[in-house]
Amino acid sequence: MARKDLLKNLMSPAPVPDDARPIKRSDRGAIGAVSKSINELKSRAIIEVPAEMIDDAGIADRLDEDAGGIEALRDSIRDYGQQVPVLLRHSPRSEGRYEIVFGRRRVQAMRGLGLPVRAMVRNLDDKQLVVAQGQENSARKDLSFIEKANFAAQMVKAGFERKVICDALSIDKTVISRMLTVTDAVPETLIRAIGAAPSAGR
Question: CA dist 96 to 45, 59, 61, 77, 146, Å?
Fold first, then answer.
């Protein structure tokens, strides 16, 4: 009798510990939602990055260096601190380094002060980078028509589709075509020699 009970016990499936049980679909969904929330919080978190670890990336949007503007920004940051963080991405070329998505002038000012840069860091590919950069540019009122046109022309040279250019600058194809007509007619060297020309019309 004891032998039969022993065989019965051996043939019966052993109880599965709670921590070894498969995760229910509902549990997996909850865990996935938590992981997604954590990743979103990380992407919004502001960290300090050494300025010397940050490289330029994307497309240059300004035609003028504006040394006076950088100096004024540096003085303001020295007095009041960096109030607005920049947006960076992890460099796809150099491990441990970062690339600027937007906020070039702030990074330049912080380099001059020898201070770390307050930044948000996101994982962006090249297309997402230029779209984010272009949308941030479009939100600013100080970029001139020719600077936006030059930005669009550089995107064309980089091989981006017309839809991506429209999304980046938040303008329609008609305006993009008008901008590219200007940049096709005027050599880039002349555009850069003239500069931003903020008072000039289209």
Answer: 18, 22, 26, 26, 36
pLDDT tens across 33-52, in order? 555 544 554 556 899 999 99
Asked whether 121 and 47 are in contact (CB, 8 A), the reply is: yes
Global pTM reads: 0.59
Write down the residue that tokens 């000012």 correspond to: 109
Which of 108, 112, 115 lies closest to 55 in space, CA to CA? 108
pLDDT at site 200: 54
* 131 and 147, same domain (yes or no): yes
Statement to judge: residues 142 and 192 lie in one domain: yes
User: Which of the residue ranges 29-43, 70-84, 115-129 would you say has the lowest mean pLDDT?
Assistant: 29-43
| Amino acid identity, position 169 | L
Q: How far apart are CA 168 and CA 175, in angstroms?
A: 13
Beta strands in the chain, from DSSP E residues, in sequence order: 47-49, 54-55, 86-90, 98-102, 117-122
Q: What is the pLDDT of residue 119?
A: 96
Helices vs. strands in the chain: H and E counts, helices first: 9, 5
Residues 112 and 170 in one domain: no
